[in-house]
Specification:
Layout (H helix, E strand, L loop, with lengths): L2 H19 L1 H58 L2
Helix pairs in contact: 1-2
Amino acid sequence: MSNGNLGLSAIAPAILLSSLFGGEEGERLVAVETRLGAVEKSVVRIESKRDLFKIRLGKVERSVSRMEGKLDSYFAAQAKGK
């Protein structure tokens, strides 16, 4: 369960109760739910950016490994006198 879903499931009973009692408390709970939805969207965006960063980092690591291999080959050839 994602953080946002956990928050929504935690506040759902309060929203149901507020619909029974109505009034100002109900409006406050709806406002809290709206803010919680915005927080959930932010968490999803951050998770997406983190995943993209991991992909980019993986590409950089592979490029560095290739460069290290080329440098190792170059220095090995230099050591042999070629």
